[in-house]
Amino acid sequence: MHEDVRFGRIAGIAVGASWTLLVVLVLITWTLAGGVLPEVAPDSHPAARWAVSAVAAVAFFAGLLAHELAHAVVARSRGMRVEGITLWMFGGVSRLGGEAPDARTELRVAVAGPLTSLALGGALIALVAPLALAGVPDVVVAAVAWLGLMNAVLAVFNLLPAYPLDGGRLLRAAVWARTGDLRRATDVAATVGVAMGYGFVALGVASALSGAGVGGVWLALIGWIVLDAARAERMAVLVHHLLRGVRVGDVMTRDPVTVPEDTTVDSLVHEHVAAHRCSAFPITDPAGAVTGLVSLSRVRHVPADARATTPLLLVATPLDQVVTAQPDEPLVDLLERMSATGGRRALVFDGAGRLVGIVTASDVDRALEVANVGGPQALVSSGRG
After folding, report:
1. Contact 47, 304 (CB under 8 A)
2. Which of 103, 302, 338, 350 is most exposed, with minimal Cβ within 10 Å?
3. Nearest Cα to 340, choosing from 14, 89, 96, 23?
4. What is the DSSP letter of 67?
5. Cβ contacts of residue 175 below 8 Å, gap of 6+?
6. How far apart are CA 88 and CA 17, in angstroms?
7. Which residues does 285 contact at the CB level (< 8 Å), separation at least 6?
8. If you write DSSP's letter for every residue of 73-89 in order, what string do you get?
9. What would the pLDDT profile of 63-75 be if each residue is shown by its tens digit?
10. Which residue, among 60, 62, 74, has the nearest Cα to 28 in the 3D structure?
């Protein structure tokens, strides 16, 4: 999930949000102020309902953040790397570095979020009666009750065995503990997740057609996300299994062709692309230092009549925005960084800072094909031989 805004750190964990969060904040505020609160607090002033609804919407996502922080804190306490938390329109995502080391850790990390949501929901619901007895305005009491109920619903929903929801991760932990095989456990949990994803989509479509409106569409979207995420998680574990022990240097294209940064786009296309059949070229300054990476996809946006005078330096991605790696780094770690940034290529530098290779999507595809046939050792032996 792309992070558009960084809020800071909580307990040392980076917290950010996607702009899509604003969509749900507005929807929740509108739903509470326009539908829920007028029914339970009809005598309240409209301005008060809107103000309370806005605060409740923010508080709802604070509860989601607490849910994700619980995952992240437990994961970090078990030695896992935590890259951060991102809030978005469908909830929150804890970005953990790699898989849990064992089934017990997987179980503890997965259950931490729902337990936190249940505890928070129970605490809020328990506050309703004391607040009412204390004479707190009905509109505030109703909002607190709604927040308690939503946190409880969040916990229950996340416990559904639809991988990669928390319940699906609990299912994976159980199968992993029983079989000792993470790949098989992931396949079982992902299969259930895919089935439930289809179920959510079908139920959502049926609900929308029967008059449920936005609620049905929302459920269908959640189902689609679960379906897509389950497939992606299954593929990620397969990739980790196939590339276990493989280093970046085993799969990279060695000694990539470089081009001076003052070369024009026209010269690149007519002199270098045809000769080397590459789709991306590192560019260098007069001293030979790499300053960026230019790809054909970026060149394509340069108008034809400007290509003869446009230097690659103005078109290339600057080096500080390019994913980089070292030859001895585990390939799966590099793939995680490329996935997180949306990068399709990485430049490889040795310990002295010299460019020694490039990793492209084609290199990764070939590595997966070789590993699928001959196992990771086939890549290691061919890459170092």
Report:
1. no
2. 350
3. 96
4. H
5. 184, 185, 188, 189
6. 6
7. 261, 291
8. HHHHHTT-EEEEEEEET
9. 999 999 999 999 9
10. 60
Q: How many CB atoms neighbour CB 27 within 10 A? A: 14
Residue with tokens 């040795």: 350
Residue type at 24 in one-letter notation: V
Per-residue tokens: 207: 């609900």
Name the token pair of 251.
């799969």
Catalytic site residue from 3, 39, 68, 336: 68
**Hey, is 295 helix, strand or coil?**
strand
Measure Cα distances from 163 to 172, 189, 197 in Å: 8, 6, 9
Residue entry with tokens 């079982």:
188
| Contact by Cβ (8 Å): 260, 283 | yes
The pTM for the full model equals 0.70
Bond before 164 cis per omega within 30 degrees: yes
How many whole angstroms separate alpha carbon 39 and alpha carbon 341? 46
How confident is the model over 328-349, as a mean pLDDT? Answer: 86
Both structure tokens of 351: 């310990």
Cα dihedral sign, 353-356-360-363: negative
Strand partners for 311: 264
Would you list the DSSP string of 152-203? Answer: HHHHHHHTSS-TTSHHHHHHHHHHHHHH--HHHHHHHHHHHHHHHHHHHHHH
Amino acid found at 25: L
- CB of 74 within 8 A of CB of 108? yes
Condensed to tens digits (0 to 9), the pLDDT of residues 239-281 reads: 777 788 889 999 999 999 999 999 999 999 888 887 887 889 9
Tokens of 319: 């080096």
Q: Two tokens at 170?
A: 């609990």
- The set of residues, in sequence order, having a beta carbon less than 8 Å from that of 219 and lying 6+ positions away, is 200, 203, 204, 207
CB proximity list for 235: less than 8 A, separation 6 or greater = none
What six digits make up the tokens of 348? 């490889």
Residues in the chain: 385
The pair of structure tokens assigned to 226 is 């679960």
* Residue 200, token pair as written in the block: 């959510």
Establish how many alpha carbons lie within 13 A of residue 362's alpha carbon, considering only the half-sphere containing its beta carbon: 6
Distance (Å) of CA 167 to CA 100, 110, 196, 201, 311:
16, 7, 12, 18, 53
